[in-house]
């Protein structure tokens, strides 16, 4: 019961406020654009110089052309404001898209540089490892040659390193 009573009160208040708004708008017709648009919900037609209640759903069915209608401001027409707001929204969307593209491009370049530096570190480690392996192989080769020379000297195949030309085979 309370809900229905509340609904009826709200409906009656809305009805009186819309009637009141229409009356306020028609009273402003003779006073000019600024007086009309200062009243909430009113629009001013510059060709007919009439102030009437503005409803978006009735914008295109009015006797006043949309290019001559002024709503909430007398600076520009309704059509002008639609164009200005559309252009600004388009520029904003374009700026956001360009910003996103620039950020993505910068992140991609950063990841490429990071990958290149990682590859250079890996190449440097591989070169160091190869150098260490070559050094170790040379050391093992020298050690094997020393051991082989010691064995040759022991069995008389090699008399002395300084005198390596005296080498002769055993009978």
Automatic annotation (TrEMBL):
**Which species is this UniProt entry from?**
Rotaria sordida
| Keyword presence, Transmembrane helix | yes
**What keywords are assigned to this protein?**
Membrane, Signal, Transmembrane, Transmembrane helix
Question: What's the protein called, per UniProt?
Answer: Uncharacterized protein
> Which residues fall in a compositionally biased region of kind Low complexity?
129-139
A single Gene Ontology CC annotation of this entry is:
nucleus
Q: Which domain of life is it from?
A: Eukaryota
Q: Cite the record's Basic and acidic residues compositional bias ranges.
A: 115-128
Q: Which residues cross the membrane?
A: 81-104
Check the UniProt entry and state the signal peptide residues, or none.
1-21
Q: Where is this region: Disordered?
A: 115-145
Record has DNA damage as a keyword: no
Q: Please name the GO terms of the biological process aspect recorded for this protein, alphabetically.
A: protein import into nucleus
